[in-house]
Amino acid sequence: MIRYVESEWFLQTPQTLKQKRAILKRVLTRAGQKFNISIAEIGFQDKWQRALIGFAVVSESHNQAEKMADTVLVFLDSFPEWERGKTTMESL
């Protein structure tokens, strides 16, 4: 079972794209390593206060994949540099 998640994020502190990239690199690297997931910025690359993040979780059951995706979102929400907006989830 594959669970795909897209979420929009609003960053409050960066004043430049370089600062945004530093925040995203740190957060996405930590999430990828901690949960062994594929995660990347997939939209709003030219906006310094917005980011569209996509990640995929692979598991043997639907419930386990859903639970893991929720855990990753809680982890991402724990960073004070950004705030989550619209989030969509899809099972493949």
TrEMBL record:
SUPFAM superfamilies: Hypothetical protein TT1725. Coiled coil: none annotated. Pfam families: DUF503 (PF04456). Transmembrane segments: none annotated. It comes from the Bacteria. This is DUF503 domain-containing protein. It comes from Listeria grandensis FSL F6-0971.
